[in-house]
Amino acid sequence: MNSQFVKKVKRAFGDAGEQWLKQLPEKVEQLCTEWGLTIEGESSNLSYNYVAYVKDAMDRSLVLKVGIPGYDFSNEIKAAKAFQGEGFVKLYKEETELGAMLLERLEPGRMLKEVEKENQAYIYLEVWNKLNRQPSQGLPPIHNWFQVLGNPLPNDLITDDRVEIALRYKEEIEKSSEGNVHLHGDLHHDNILYDRKRGWLAIDPKGVQGDCYFDYISFLFNELHGNMVLLETRVKQIVQAQALDELRLRKVAVALLTVQVLWAVEDGAEDAKEMNEILKYLTGTV
Known about the structure:
This is Kinase. By secondary structure, this protein is an alpha+beta fold.
């Protein structure tokens, strides 16, 4: 099992993560027996979930995804079920108590970040617009994420005044919102893959609902590598294509990115400082 994957899980979930890792081989074996699967290999790009390439009794190439059972993974399952249709990977089976999903394998599975930069936004928006946006009563509001602003971990990046700015923008967004829609919550370059039969598809939703502007933000600051010109290009492309209020989009970005920088600090993520530089730049444009 990938050592970086083990470290990430232990750091994020503590004792619960360590216990889950110990039980993982047995759980995978149980799922393979129940669902008639044969493991062909595991993903080299593991984050907080275990992902294996499998074949079923009908010789279909599929993906087995196993996560820590609980609130977050159950919401991901709910979101995957709600998103079934155009623009989203097929879900064949799920087991909430074991924290598992059996998914369509996308071939060749090329990530959006591998496409020429000038074409990425258009492909992203094509997928964004295909997703089922009907609100789901079973999914939590994205505003729950902002609870971290109430008691942030002491850090050298996010000052009290920047927390206040994020909270103020969040309130403005809530007051001006036209209502909640079903959000992916993490729709960016690594979570949009190409399949030769079905085209570009989204994977790995967070499972939340809220104002539709929130679902543009992950793409804006992903794979930037400090290139603020590229950030501005993405903002303009999305605003023009979707007929959005640009100032409102920037405020949503500042509010949500503040939350994500604080999460990165809590997780000890190496990219926290890079994310904070993007946040400081965006704050200066509002």
